[in-house]
Amino acid sequence: MTGLMKPGALHVGVALLLLAANFLLPEYHHGAMARVLTLAVFAMGYNVMFGYAGLLSLGHALFFAAGLYGMGLPMQHLGLAAEPAFLLGIFSGALVAAVVGALALRTAGVAFMIVTLMFAQAGYLTILYFLEYTRGDEGFVIAREARTVFGLDLAAPEVRYLAAWLLFTVAMFVVLALVRSPAGRVLVAIRENEERARMLGYDVARYKLGAIVVSGALCGAAGAAYGLLFGYVGATFASVQYSILPLLWVLLGGAGTVLGPLLGATFMFYLIDLSSGITDAYMLIAGAALVALTLFAPAGLLGELRRRACPWLP
Amino acid sequence: MAAMTAPAAAPSAEPLLSTKGVTRWFGGLCAVDHVDFTLPAGEIRALIGPNGAGKSTFVGLLAGRILPTEGRVTFAGEDVTRLPAHARMARGMAYTFQITSIFANLALFDNVALAVQRRLAPGQSLATEVEAALARVGLDDRLDQPAGDLSYGHQRLLEIAMGLAQNPRLLILDEPTQGLSDGEIEGFKVLVREVAKDATVLLIEHNMDVVMSLADRITVLDMGAVLAEGTPAEIHADPAVQRAYLGG
């Protein structure tokens, strides 16, 4: 039964380590990691679709933004409390994903990438169009008084880190449970050999749509949490940059690994952070590191580890 | 369904699978031309015919990989003509591909688990069922090995194990012995006879030795139409078949 114990122990260990980090990290890194953990949930959501189901989307900024605005707009304009607004953000992510998925799944491969990209651009432009409510590029700030859950002030660094940690930990175990379930095995089967999966009696289209909705819900949760924790809602988060970032994080960390998204998001954050301390041309250093990694570890950091040493890694 | 009219319990009152006038055009080519086909439950049926006779297209129509231009397909008393392939598989068909199609990057265990988990009854253990299915083809000592690392012959056997693991009512095998060694073919024959105790088997096969020794009946396709049908002895003696296929 070591096959079941090892992954469980690893993920519990990672969760505890990140919890301990709350008390150990210096102030700057404490704040940075709260951000990284929230973005890692975004990457995990992306990974469900890309890493497991094999669907390459270029439009995930839309799902993140759906969560962000699904939470932010009702708080800003209707005075909704943070807790229901957060749930509404998750729901928005899932709903937008269901609609986009149902339409985009009529295509495959490159066409699927283009269609998701176009939907995300349409979403971005929609946000700009309704300037009156969204304040467009400028965005809006969520008042500090409103950013409380169960009486806890999310703007306080400790609370913010622990909230990000809780979200990350829940998302991690949700994804772990999913990928180790029979349904998760079917998603991998679809990625590996779609026709064979179909001829084993699986309704491939339904499974793909399911993966997209789960992905949308996770990305929506990340978007809603990001807005609540950092108090800002803006159209930048719906731009194409935020569709590319989760793809990069997942590729770096290892597509189709549960912890890869966290590793990729952390790695990239600190890569840019550290190199910008050295030179103004920090994107050059980041770019070179990315190219090197793609050349020498095409399966990503954890993907490579799994291939070489730990085949049990989920 | 036939309970009201059936006078006595005939051995196979209703066929497991039948087609009526099933036809498929590809552009200007009629690959399958008004085929009426009946397969009683429990039979091992071989489908033979020269290259391009329409055999693979025909089983594709049965399995739902290809939809017919006209005609009907009935499986287990239900009209499945418009059902997509996965729904037909879920109703008790299993299909192995002519060109080996497995999950090369996944372990043998996962390959077979995918075939098993959909029909797993409560209380059954996935691991036990998977191992049992792999044991039937003698691959149960390699559960954790990636399927792509197997030799070609073993990959064929794995695919057959995946077919068996579904506990199908109808097992469709498209050229299953292609690329198998003589020893493996003998093992395959034993396996199919065993499977046929609880399932109906339809196999496309070029190896006439396999066909003659396994099949209860043989259907010969030529130019998309049924040329002849009968026991191995009848087919062997049929002059039309000899002209078209056996080169007699």
Automatic annotation (TrEMBL), chain A:
<feature type="transmembrane region" description="Helical">
    <location>
        <begin position="209"/>
        <end position="235"/>
    </location>
</feature>
<protein>
    <submittedName>
        <fullName>Amino acid/amide ABC transporter membrane protein 2, HAAT family</fullName>
    </submittedName>
</protein>
<dbReference type="Pfam" id="PF02653">
    <property type="entry name" value="BPD_transp_2"/>
</dbReference>
<feature type="transmembrane region" description="Helical">
    <location>
        <begin position="6"/>
        <end position="25"/>
    </location>
</feature>
<feature type="transmembrane region" description="Helical">
    <location>
        <begin position="247"/>
        <end position="272"/>
    </location>
</feature>
<feature type="transmembrane region" description="Helical">
    <location>
        <begin position="112"/>
        <end position="131"/>
    </location>
</feature>
<dbReference type="InterPro" id="IPR043428">
    <property type="entry name" value="LivM-like"/>
</dbReference>
<feature type="transmembrane region" description="Helical">
    <location>
        <begin position="162"/>
        <end position="188"/>
    </location>
</feature>
<dbReference type="GO" id="GO:0015658">
    <property type="term" value="F:branched-chain amino acid transmembrane transporter activity"/>
</dbReference>
<dbReference type="GO" id="GO:0005886">
    <property type="term" value="C:plasma membrane"/>
</dbReference>
<feature type="transmembrane region" description="Helical">
    <location>
        <begin position="85"/>
        <end position="105"/>
    </location>
</feature>
<feature type="transmembrane region" description="Helical">
    <location>
        <begin position="284"/>
        <end position="303"/>
    </location>
</feature>
<keyword id="KW-1133">Transmembrane helix</keyword>
<keyword id="KW-0812">Transmembrane</keyword>
<keyword id="KW-0472">Membrane</keyword>
<keyword id="KW-1003">Cell membrane</keyword>
<dbReference type="InterPro" id="IPR001851">
    <property type="entry name" value="ABC_transp_permease"/>
</dbReference>
<feature type="transmembrane region" description="Helical">
    <location>
        <begin position="37"/>
        <end position="65"/>
    </location>
</feature>
From TrEMBL, chain B:
<keyword id="KW-0067">ATP-binding</keyword>
<dbReference type="GO" id="GO:0005886">
    <property type="term" value="C:plasma membrane"/>
</dbReference>
<feature type="domain" description="ABC transporter">
    <location>
        <begin position="17"/>
        <end position="248"/>
    </location>
</feature>
<dbReference type="InterPro" id="IPR027417">
    <property type="entry name" value="P-loop_NTPase"/>
</dbReference>
<dbReference type="GO" id="GO:0005524">
    <property type="term" value="F:ATP binding"/>
</dbReference>
<keyword id="KW-0547">Nucleotide-binding</keyword>
<dbReference type="InterPro" id="IPR003439">
    <property type="entry name" value="ABC_transporter-like_ATP-bd"/>
</dbReference>
<dbReference type="InterPro" id="IPR003593">
    <property type="entry name" value="AAA+_ATPase"/>
</dbReference>
<dbReference type="InterPro" id="IPR032823">
    <property type="entry name" value="BCA_ABC_TP_C"/>
</dbReference>
<protein>
    <submittedName>
        <fullName>Amino acid/amide ABC transporter ATP-binding protein 1, HAAT family</fullName>
    </submittedName>
</protein>
<dbReference type="InterPro" id="IPR051120">
    <property type="entry name" value="ABC_AA/LPS_Transport"/>
</dbReference>
<dbReference type="Pfam" id="PF00005">
    <property type="entry name" value="ABC_tran"/>
</dbReference>
<dbReference type="GO" id="GO:0016887">
    <property type="term" value="F:ATP hydrolysis activity"/>
</dbReference>
<dbReference type="Pfam" id="PF12399">
    <property type="entry name" value="BCA_ABC_TP_C"/>
</dbReference>
<keyword id="KW-0813">Transport</keyword>
